[in-house]
Amino acid sequence: MTMTTTRKQKQRPDFAIPFSFCLLAFFLAFFLPAADAFGARIKDLTEMQGVRNNQLVGYGLVVGLNDTGDSSNNGITMLTVANMMEHMGMTIDRDAVDVDNVAAVMITADLPPFARTGTKIDVVVSSIGDADSLFGGVLLQTPLIGPDNQVYAVAQGALVVGGMGAGGAGARVEKNHPTVGRVPNGALVEREVGFTLPADGKYEYHLRDADFTTLSRMVDTVNNTFGSGVARAVDSATMEVRLPEDFRNNPVRFLSGIENLQVNPDARARIVVNERTGTIVMGSSVRLSTVAVAHGNIRLTVKESALVSQPHPFSELGETVVIPDTALEFEEEDASFVVMEEGVSVGDVAAALNAIGVSPRDVITIFEAIKAAGAMRAELVIM
To answer: Looking at residue 248, what DSSP letter applies?
Structure first.
């Protein structure tokens, strides 16, 4: 539902209170309590152009492992350790380097927008060699570079690994994934990604899921709140917003107001099924044409048993023999017809299918048949 309100023109009083603050107070008092209403905030539906994460990557070493590091067959790790020691002024025999307690890793991180120098960010550390586990390891200082080959952060610290592995010569057991870990707040930002708000006061919001209806409702909500002509639709995924004159000196408050507006998003009618797990998710817009459904199961039961044949007592010949016996039972359940009238909702569909006692996997089969019959007004997505 689109929320609307009428803006009334009032004469500004003699005492000096900027009109922008009056408008902001009105917005906070009227729209923020609507957070409990049905809908979603614009900030949860869109992304502002230019405000995004930037991916960083680096190559480094994890040390301090308990004989779970890379093997001596991994030449890249031995070379890296030797180069690191020589860089520190030590001369060593590269063939004598033992890397059982060292692992070569790749480090990845996301540099958030507006991150300043000294900001701490999380990093993910992943083994690229044949290490058994990174548990208990410490990441050595590693520069993280962006797509332009510039260093934007430096990572170092103790790893947090959510898995463990142990084993011997004949068997091995693992829990979760021990060759990937994290270093919370393990990287310091050394270079900032420059971003300034557009000087012309034009901002673009991009819908994560393009939809003409959702975008139209979003534009109407913004214009009803801040005045006609503030927002306009560019296409099915882009809304352009112009900074009102009342907020020229404080665009941050205006953008905060925009992203907290409530909009009722629209979506295509869709049914998502996962045949491997038997999971079914149906949207509220799913509708069916008039259709009759009958579904019956075939049940086959196989019972294995053993019959024992023994010779008579005091018999000089014969021996005890175990004879396998197999019994088969075949049963076909009676199918019941259920008629679904045209325009039934997802709740009606669920109730009708439950009435004939079908399982989730049977429901998937039924939905596929209804779709093939052309009676489903929804997209069927099979995972």
So the answer is: T
What does the alpha-carbon distance between residue 266 and residue 270 come to, in Å, rounded to a whole number? 12
CATH assignment, 19-51+197-263: 3.90.1150
Domains of the chain by residue range: 19-51+197-263, 54-166+174-189, 270-300+328-382
- pLDDT of 104-157, one tens digit each? 999 999 999 889 999 999 999 999 988 989 999 999 999 999 999 999 999 999
pLDDT for the residue numbered 100? 86
Question: Cα(314)–Cα(321) distance, rounded to whole angstroms?
Answer: 17
pLDDT at 18: 44
The tokens for 77 are 């790790």
pLDDT on residue 196: 79
- Could you give phi then psi for residue 355, rounded to 5 degrees? -65, -30
Provide the 8-state DSSP code for 162: S
Residue corresponding to tokens 């679904």: 340
Torsion of the alpha carbons at 55, 60, 63 and 65, rounded to the nearest 10: 60
Q: Which residue has the tokens 């003409």?
A: 212
For the chain, give the mean pLDDT: 78
Q: How far apart are CA 376 and CA 270, in angstroms?
A: 10
Reported as a single tens digit per residue, the pLDDT across 176-210 is 688 999 999 999 999 988 777 888 889 999 999 89
As a whole number of angstroms, the distance between CA 223 and CA 6 comes to: 11
Q: Give 344's strand partners.
A: 288
Band the pLDDT of 73: cuts 50, 70, 90.
Answer: confident
Q: Is 84 exposed, middle or buried (0-12, 13-18, 19+ CB in 10 A)?
A: middle
